[in-house]
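Below is the data:
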Amino acid sequence: MAKVFVTGIAGFLGSHVAERFRDIGWEVCGIDNLRGGRAANVPEDVRFEVVDCLDRSGYLPLLAGSDLVYHCASAAYDGLSVFSPAFVYRNTAQATVEVASASVASGVRRFIHCSSMARYGALPAPFTEDMPPAPVNPYGLAKHASELIVRNLFETHGGEYTIAVPHNIIGPRQRYDDPYRNVASIMINRMLRGLQPVIYGDGSNLRCFSFVQDVLFCLERMGTSPEAAGETINIGPDEGAVSILRLAEEIAGLLDFGLDPVFVPSRPLEVEVATCSADKARRLLGYKTSTSLRDGLETMIQWIAEQGPSEFSYDIDIEINSALTPSTWVGKLI
């Protein structure tokens, strides 16, 4: 039986990847430090250990014999990275070096690295894979550095790799009590508690959102298709971009919530338009969008309501508290 090892297996994306491979008959195992994930997210019949990506000796025995590695774990904090760069860089770039190095040494056949649209920075949208990365914040820099080290290690020592570049993936199991990321989940959590959504700037920033079930087939193919080896591929919709304000309106409509957003100053280094082309994913992986934004949000609302909306957890230290640091974070106002 083929074996897949997943980092961040108790997190949003990692748990869905693990479930997908379990369902198609693979042996699945993985690690998570449970900083952003929950043990309850890990699918049944999946071996899971609480180990940090930085602790190579702690997961080498579990990694041994793996055919594929999906590196989903990351401190995926785009905006927060401007103010907590050491935390984000260490738990993104250094974590990737550790896992990729261990994977090369273990003879893994293919390594699928989950990168981020932050690699493109403020390049003209829609972003295409042939654009030279131009990250504008520490998170984007960490993701780009991670891609470079993955490519370097596997091209030097042997084995295959694929770089996945997801577009704002949303869905059930996404952490919704994190005040620093996951805009749709933050809005849903607040509205379910009778609170108005907080919008940075005027809400005109444009994004595309990917429902998790729509991208799992692509992620599976990235690990199993010969055509995906050595490629960098955007995954997610390139149709139906919406503004952050429009996202709030969609959620409010589904909840029958009287919308009156709280507008606060824009965050520094926030990209105005971050949308990607999915042409390469369609060509190489057979990607297609099956879930509308409205249906995806409805599924998220149902899941968060079932779990129970909650107060936000400010569990990451802000390393740089300056005049630019959002007051919503400093004052724990979200």
